[in-house]
Predict the structure.
Amino acid sequence: MHENRNASLVTQGQGQSQNCGNGTVCIDTKRVLDSCRDRDCFEDTRVYLTCSGEEILANSTNVRTRKAQLLWAYVGVDEVPFNRGFYQVTVRYYIEVEFEACVAVGRSVTFKGLATLEKDVILYGGEGRAVTFTSGPLNDYCRGCNMNNVGTNDPVAVVETVEPIVLGTKVTDCNCPCACTDYSDIPEGVRNCFCEELVINTTGPRLLVSFGIFSVIRIVRPAQLLIQATDYSVPDKECNAATNDDNPCSLFRTIAFPTSQFRGVECVNEPTVRGGGNCGCGRNN
């Protein structure tokens, strides 16, 4: 009886493999359960400077922001109490800001700082507590317990964003200690992006920058879906071999003209609908 059941399973598997590439197939992927888009305005966010940046700021007559670059973002997912299936997604952005300061007549110097922005959204993530185990090179029978092959179908938050837009820059005098954050709250990898240690508590002038950020946030879960599939088609285009011509102009002529880089940016007419938090210390309205 045991041998007949195994034979039946083998026959069934062979029958399914004959339709590989055609008809309905089952795939293992991630299913989007909920998503949202947002435009956030973080007004008067304090920028933490290094020791040299603090000295430059104290001796400058004018400061402007040159650019802002997103270094990293923390994304956390927590269940919403008493609201089954919903999750709070916390996003914390770490932004490197580059400034240019006038320290003397006709002389300018650049320096960098760190800004942290945080936002929360509520999205539906479904329910499910299934535990999965997968095979792999480290999942050997004789090695005993291996936690590397253990997983769950808990929801995962995905954040897509673009580089932040600088909306304004101001310098304020603040003589009060600001307890907005602690140095240990900044991840080590972010701190290592700066050549010097960041100054958290200072009584000198402070830089406040307003940022605008566009983002798309979604919650996904592992899922098995049935889809229609067709055979893989061999492409008709032939590969062009790379030339070893020493003339750089001949290679340059083969590159398509980047027309899209010369087009203007589309205007967004929607008004800003949300204001962000700030340090709360030395904010001018």
